Amino acid sequence: MSSATAPSSSGPKIRWPLLIAGLLVIALMMALLGGAFGRQVKELSTEMEGKPFRQFTTVDFDGNKVSLQQVIDSGKPVVLNFWSTWCGPCKIEHDHFQHAARMYPEVAFYGVLYQDKVPVAQRYLAQKGAAYPTLVDESGAIAITYGVGGVPETFFIDRAGTIIHKENGPMHMGMLQPLLEQLKASAP
Amino acid sequence: MFGGGPVSTLGGVLVLLSLLFATVGCGLGFFAGYRKDPQLYRWAQSAAYGFSASMIGANLLMVYALINHDFSVRYVAEVGSRSTPLYFTIVSLWASLNGSILFWGGILGIYTAGVTWHLGNKHREYAPYVLHVQLGIAIFFAFLVASIANPFAPVFPVPPDGPGPNPLLQNHWLMAVHPPMLYLGYVGMSVPFSMICASLLAGRLEAGWMAPVRRWMLIPWSFLSVGIVLGGWWSYAVLGWGGAWAWDPVENASFHPWLTGTAFVHSAMVLERRGRLRDWTLLLGMSTFLLTLVGTFMTRSGVFNSVHSFTQSDIGPVFLVFIGITLTYSLLLLTFRAHKLDEAAALTDARLGAKAKKSTSVFSRETAILIQNGLFGAFTFTVLIGTLWPLIVEAVEGRRISVGEPYFDKWALPIGLGIVFMMGVGPMLPWGRQNADKALKRALPAAAFGILVAGGFAAAGFQGPISVLTLFVTGFAFWANANEILDPARKRMSTHSEGLGTALRKVLLRGRRRFGGHVAHYGVLMAVFALALTKGYRVEQDFPVEKGQTVQFQGFDIRFDGAEMVQEPHRSALVSTFEVSKDGSLIGTKVPRMNFYKTQREPIYTPDVHSRPWGDLYFSIISVPGDGSSAVVRLIWQPFQVWLWLSAPMVFLGTLICLWPERRRASASSAASAPAAAGQVAPGSAK
């Protein structure tokens, strides 16, 4: 099948624009995927563990002022759960957290809304129930302070104000219970 | 690699043999095609069978080692356990990474043998190149199994027992079926890829070649469809949140090739019958395989945060290199060889007397498929961008973000509705020409049926604007597809004076491919129907219950009969029992449980479902504090959920009907006979 015998071909022999564009796309894709190695999604920054809590002051959905320092000073351990309504795993863990909060009234639970709109989250909570307040973090300052990389992430702060555990990803009762017992037993 | 027990040694030999066969066969295939040498082709065929036999043999050997608890083999020591039931022992072949790559190789072996046998001595211009590309892919997997992912490596000292497979795998039978279905889908896409590459290498593409390419795409496509639905079912039945799909990166990874594959099976028809959309169709077919590779990379590299990434490993970089090579190879073929196809087409046209371009009106099936393809392309692009966006933002701005459901839902809804609408429009229109009046006349009853469906469900309380619209479009497409079967049967009844049964049977037998397509469409419509009625209408409530207490939920009376610890060989379980009655009569006992595995600290929650066509009553245990005399249970009412799962067998059945061999025709080439056969049943096209 030699091309000499063929009638005039309807396209150019080598499709240079396609070749160049294609090579560019391949190079970009390789760089993107290759550069992502070592993202270590699972072992994500647990470096906050063992460190003292970081102070912030903000308001909850009802406009009540919340200062973490004051909560710790009152002798209560704290669970800080970063979540958003667009996050599937957050919805999975939602009821477990509600239930845990009811079971452990001596622990102060706070949700922190992450990159989401307050009215949307309010509607969600009105439907799904809210056993504890969710805090507003419109500028993302609290998330940055705590090095939050995505949602859900949960911080467990004992009575002395030390972050004893950070969990990346959804949690259920079986995981929550031992940590909450530990918080409950901690000394101020 | 050698040394250790006999299984390690034999396994090592088989894996090396498969690598050898793949390498030699890949070279032989190319030269057999290039030099048109029948002897070389026979050798290439033998090499392909050799690869398949040694890879499948290696898989069987691993199953043998697993069953016999041969802990001197590394993989068995990693996932085997004497307490695991036989069934789970066998399926643990794909429980962990190295085994799943071996299994992957085995499936590649099955497909390679299948396509080698199918091609036989037919399509001699293409067949050697098919083996060349197919075995080129095989080299990579054989290399992986032989090197970094070698499951046969010996273990010394030999441990007395192993930890058993991942608890999630043992927790539900679906987990035994869902991964192989996906693998059958993913790996099988290599065959149409090889066939398309072969066409470019050979520099020709006849309609008679597109038919087998399309068939070989349909096989893995149907497995992928089933695999995706099973994955959703697993997530629904095991994860306890009553949801099936969360736009998780790994879920998306399986969705990309499904979208391009679906677009391909439609555009390939346009290419086969009308000679149009050639480059686009080839690109789709190649992308489908490339996207399965990207999907595998997403699952295995640990680069994406996902519920599925429990199988991270160091094969990521090697896999990425393979993706790079395959992408570049495909691109070079497309850019350097596509002009050969133009020349070949021009030659054929000249031989046939350079027919005037076939005219096509706006109201034709090819236009409908073109629009449908555009929608599928846009769908793939938006999901792919959404999946990769966190990586892009992190690379450019160093900031971490996640792309959530709102993004995906926002795009999926309009594009999905558009696709379902076209699913009704497409079958209504014949190939070639149709005037607007006639098209409209066919559309009106379908639209009326759509309104009826949407209105009916709205009267039953499903009144959200999105579900009303979705139901309308679903009803429209349902009628359009049904009419394509009933209308020709009606015509037969009057012209041949046959009964409805005979006419239907004859219509179906004559147009099997069309009929299969309609059945597959029904499968997809069932899924859309379920999505329209489950999203936004689910009711859920948590109940703290005491033993003997009855609660009312959605018209059901549900009594809690306590929870107790049950010992099973491979796990222990806290089983809660609920008696479900309606209007005073007992209709079932449901036992949601918490399963405890030795290797895992936290229990795995396993819900239980009372399933009926009009809705599911879903039980999920939130907690069982104390001695089992009280519990907190979450009850979910999920209307019409079961139709989502039923869509999978329907799509599978449709594909099977399409694939069922037509009665052999006298002519050697199916190219001429296929459109003619369809022409007999295509209403309107005869004129």
Explain what this protein looks like in three dimensions:
The complex is a heterodimer of chains A (188) and B (687). Chain A is built from 6 helices and 7 strands. Chain A is α/β, with parallel strands linked by helices. Chain A has a domain of 129 residues: 3-Layer(aba) Sandwich (Glutaredoxin). Chain A has a 5-stranded mixed beta sheet, with helices on one face. In chain A, helix 3 packs across helix 6. With 687 residues, chain B is of the alpha+beta class. Among the domains of chain B are: 170 residues; 179 residues; 100 residues. In chain B, strands 2, 3, 4, 5, 6 and 7 form a 6-stranded antiparallel beta sheet that branches. In chain B, strand 8 and strand 9 form a beta hairpin. Chain B starts with 5 loop residues before the first helix and ends in a 6-residue tail after the last helix. The C terminus of chain B is likely disordered.
